[in-house]
């Protein structure tokens, strides 16, 4: 006689996950690990700092921070400069980050398209995504020209002053746009930075109509960026492609020509990842 417990129709818990998988309360977190990750994330944004400086700025005791750093150092995630007496992110952090990039085909598919875009336009080509309200640059193919834009992988940039940032913001529905922008200080990097919410919304409406965004010296004086969104299978903007260069080469008369190349590259990447070429614009 077969046991009722072997009934294949009974629901089964996914393998590799505990019963309380969805419970994210404090009882299911490891405080020491959480504290270690806070130190690691802080150091990733403020490299080259002494132990006393890190502990003071984080409000943690030097002994606690030191134990965390030594533990991370043992894993190669941070390293200590004995000459300058400061701590830096270690090489293993890059290895782990590279594994994250390999998890998706987005970067792999984008690489030849970025190179083609750079060769076609003569300017640096970039790939970025939205990450917690900022633009996270994933890949870049630099121009051969001496004066160039430089956004190494891992760089974060404010969305309101970024071509890719505005290209992605323009594709958000109103509810998500409000959540993304809510409480964000619109820092003025240059005299051209859009710092007013209403003005930014007007600019995003124009971006959506045109299909591409422009960072016209809004982050750095003398630099202009043209960006377009990349869409997934659901028609959602999941990334942005851009070209960036000095205004002496990327002038207002060049926008029409360059924007066409950027949009073509973004559409090609959309198709390469199985997404839609574009979505209806209103």
UniProtKB/TrEMBL annotation:
Keywords noted in UniProt: DNA-binding, Transcription, Transcription regulation
Domain IclR-ED: 92-275
InterPro entries (alphabetical): GAF-like_dom_sf, HTH_MetabolicPath_Reg, TransRegBhcR, Tscrpt_reg_IclR_C, Tscrpt_reg_IclR_N, WH-like_DNA-bd_sf, WH_DNA-bd_sf
Domain of life: Bacteria
Coiled coil: none
Residue ranges constituting the HTH iclR-type domain according to the UniProt record: 30-91
Ranges for region Disordered: 1-26
NCBIfam families for the chain: TransRegBhcR (NF045644)
PANTHER family, alphabetized: HELIX-TURN-HELIX TRANSCRIPTIONAL REGULATOR, ICLR FAMILY, HTH-TYPE TRANSCRIPTIONAL REPRESSOR ALLR
Name of this protein: IclR family transcriptional regulator
